[in-house]
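Hi P.,

Sorry for the delay on this. The queue was packed all week, but I finally got your sequence through. Input first:
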Amino acid sequence: MKPVLVFRHIACEGPGYLADFLVARNIPFEIIRIDEGETVPVNTDNVSGLVFMGGPMSVNDDLPWIQAELELIRKAHNQHIPLLGHCLGGQLISKALGGKVVRNEVTEIGWFPVGPVTHNNSPEWLNQLSFAAEIFHWHGETFTLPEQAVPLFKNRFCVNQGFVLNNTYALQCHVEMTAAAVKEWLDFYQNDLPAPCESVQSSKEMLHNIDQRIASLQKFADVIYTQWLKTYTN
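Then the structure:
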């Protein structure tokens, strides 16, 4: 069975709950550790899907691996290989497929709900999501929609929180979080946290009811990951 490749751009932003989800379904995956200097493959012959995780860098930075990932995304998309992106990963997918990555109106960090976007081609599975759930966010930039992409979610701080284009799924938000990951990020990025405001929560606020929030988030993620796996090809 061909594996899913998961691209990690910084050590603390790995696949998180997605890894648990794949293991539970006997889906093989391999992590490409960009942060440790591992190279981006140039072909997709031995993969069944590609997943791109987050990171503090910008898609618009002049980094050689960014160009390599953009090229791989375009190649995989043209070959109808399933793609999934989280935050930076979603931005990579957007840019590779013709969208733009720009500064968001505000920095958004913390637990905030999203709502569905009404669209003529909105997928039916959106009805399975509980939009009462708080979703985790940590971004200062955002993406525009590539041509023919169908928007999925929005909220008051960011107009594009996700889109689908055939078997390509791009998310601005972080549905892959675990409680341990939230705590690790707060420790690792503590010196980069902006002052709390309407769109940025304090560390204490982000840790409040963490187990309950993670449980709701993972139910939300289950729906998205399940739909994405329906496009998975061995």
